[in-house]
From TrEMBL:
The lineage of its organism: Eukaryota, Metazoa, Chordata, Craniata, Vertebrata. It comes from Chinchilla lanigera (Long-tailed chinchilla). This is Crystallin zeta like 1. Residues 10-347 form the Enoyl reductase (ER) domain. The gene is CRYZL1. InterPro entries: CRYZL1, ER, GroES-like_sf, NAD(P)-bd_dom_sf. GO terms for cellular component: early endosome. SMART domains: PKS_ER (SM00829). One of its GO terms (molecular function) is identical protein binding. PANTHER family: QUINONE OXIDOREDUCTASE-LIKE PROTEIN 1 (PTHR44461). SUPFAM superfamilies: GroES-like, NAD(P)-binding Rossmann-fold domains.
Length: 349
């Protein structure tokens, strides 16, 4: 039985993906479930976080967003039984790769998969669904009538965030990084209130948002990265499509919430003073926050269940690429790690 792992080269920090043979899994432990994986979604691996958490290994398992059939359960498992169809996210410290035919997982990381949801949809939605809930529900308390700016809304995560915001009755503004993304966003139903095309680098995001909101500013901003310095000081070309942190602060309304994915965000005293005057807040979107806090397990399971219910009801319509077989996972994972995939890629077993 083969599984996919990654190995980080210490000399140039390049991540290499390799298939390795795995031994047969031991007898299922007390609270653990043995799962036959039917689908596994591919997501970027945060190697920096793993290093900070002292979780580096010679070979680290790949693939965490899984859907499958329960084969066996431990003696103390209370929520599942053999032949149940389930979906979930393997914990950060899982010893088993999701990109393998059979894995072991604690029952508290799984929920039942709705019957009408396909394996591909379940695995391809669960990760982005949890992330969108964390950003819009727990970090910014989204409610009906709020205005929300979702950066890069045509991405796999951005589209789920837009759909959740629409479901809550929010007015959504989004940015597009290409003509294809702009056309994708314009097809959304309910429609996006305003699509800001930043591909040419000439549009001023703050002005567009203030114009759309009648000068009041937006209530919630969910970024996809920000520029911390002037354009001349930002070497990568793609960073030019990101808004500057000053633009975000300018377009925030009174009492606004800025949810950022920029873990190294630096705010100067004038930036902080401007946020203070607006009574605005900044929160950091950490994908692993539920994994790092055991006391929040009940809330986490509620989110997983709600994500699956909304997927079953058609509220969530994920942007999925064509599913691929396991033997193509190595090449696809290399592209995902380099952020060269727009739609969610799922491996189907």
């Amino acid at each position: 039985m083969k599984g996919l792992y990654f190995q980080q080269n210490s000399t140039n920090e390049e991540t290499m993906f390799v298939f390795q043979e795995r031994e047969n899994l031991p007898v299922t432990e007390d609270y653990f479930v043995k799962l036959q994986v039917k689908a596994c979604a591919l997501s970027q691996i945060n190697t920096k976080l793993l290093a900070e958490m002292k979780m580096e290994k010679d070979f680290f398992p790949v693939g965490r967003e899984v859907a499958g059939i329960v084969l066996d359960v431990g003696s103390k498992v209370s929520f599942f039984q053999p032949d149940d169809e389930v979906v979930g996210i393997l914990p950060l410290d899982s010893e088993d790769p999701g990109l393998c035919e059979v894995v072991r997982v604690h029952e508290h990381y799984l929920v039942h998969k709705p019957e009408k949801v396909t394996w591909t949809e379940a695995a391809g939605t669960v990760g982005d669904g949890v992330r969108a809930y964390t950003a819009l529900h727990y970090l910014s308390h989204l409610s009906c009538g709020k205005s929300v700016l979702i950066m890069d809304g045509a991405s796999a995560f951005g589209s789920i965030a837009i759909q959740l915001a629409h479901h809550r009755g929010a007015r959504v503004i989004s940015t597009a990084c290409s003509l294809e993304d702009k056309q994708c966003l314009e097809r959304f139903r309910p429609p996006v209130a305003r699509v800001i095309d930043v591909s040419a680098g000439k549009v001023h995001i703050a002005e567009s948002c203030l114009e759309e909101t009648g000068g009041l500013g937006v209530d919630i901003v969910l970024d996809a990265g920000v520029r911390l310095y002037n354009k001349d000081d930002e070497p990568p070309v793609k960073l030019q499509l990101l808004p500057h942190k000053h633009d975000i602060i300018t377009l925030l309304g009174v009492g606004g919430h800025w949810i950022t994915t920029e873990e190294n965000l630096q705010l100067d005293p004038p930036d902080s003073h401007c946020l203070f005057l607006k009574g605005a807040t900044v929160a950091f979107l950490n994908d692993e926050v539920w994994n790092l806090s055991n006391v929040q397990q009940g809330k986490y399971l509620c989110i997983l269940k709600d994500v699956m219910e909304k997927l079953s009801a058609g509220v969530f319509r994920p942007q999925l690429d064509e599913p691929i077989p396991l033997y193509e996972a190595k090449v696809s994972m290399e592209l995902v790690q380099k952020n060269q995939r727009r739609k969610k890629q799922v491996v189907l077993f």
